[in-house]
Amino acid sequence: MRRLHANLLLLTAALIWGVTFSIQQMAMEHIEPILFTGLRFILGALVVLPLAVCEIRKKRSLDGWKLGRGTLAWLVLTGMVLFTAALLQQLGIATTTVANAGFLTALYVPLTPILALVVLRQLPHPAIWPAALACVGGAYLMAGGVLDSMSTGDLWVMAGALFWATHILLIGAMTARTGAPFVISCVQFLICGVLGTVWGLAVESNTLAGTLNAIPAILFSGGVSVGIGFTLQVVAQRHTPAADASIILSAETVFAALAGMVILGEMLGELEYAGGALILIGVLAVELLPLTFAKIRARRARRV
Length: 304
Hints:
By secondary structure, the chain is an all-alpha fold. It has one domain. Helices cover 82% and strands 0% of the residues. The protein contains 13 helices and no strands. α1 packs antiparallel against α10 (215-236) and α3 (69-95) packs antiparallel against α7. It starts with a helix and ends with a helix.
């Protein structure tokens, strides 16, 4: 897969997640956040399971591949990080504004290259930093250029941004280690689903009627957002660095705003459109600037 194709897959994942943002908020009218998170990831695991089984059979027939204990332990950790990120975001969405949640979630964009530099000693391409600033600035404008007074929900979302950044780095490492994107997806979804479902049933006060009313939201957010969206992320990150992936995925903020217009009847003003344009510039920059710099270096090398 070429890097351009991988980045298009990431952009598709961002589109799916952006649409799901409104659906997640609507689901909170019927079901509590922990159980909702668990059920949608269980469904996502079931969607990917046939692909994971086929992938295991194929890899075993080719080279006798096995999922070692060390790799399985890292996959469990990846699933736990994903569960924490998704739950914190869901808790935040239930108790803060969509504008605040959209901006604060976008903090994972600069956090990803910072964590890669500090923890993994990976120096991102210079184009990452201005692109990340453009994306965060665009998310701020899409929040209306002002944040409401900080609430508990905002703190949940901010904490979630750190776990989203960590998850992106873990996915990059696990895809490079295993070369089995569908297995990674299925295992991490299963971990999320079991944790959320068991915990939600134990501590939340959900009703059967409310859960049944939330089925459409569970089906879409589980089958499409989790089963397809997160799997596209895992597949694409085999060919795209984590820092680049975080910037491309930040386009979900734009798609979330557009979905809010269509699904929730929310209106966008001049600031929101300007913010969307900034995010688009950041996404294009991370794709085009490295190619431009490479061509310049090649020309200079030919002259020498």
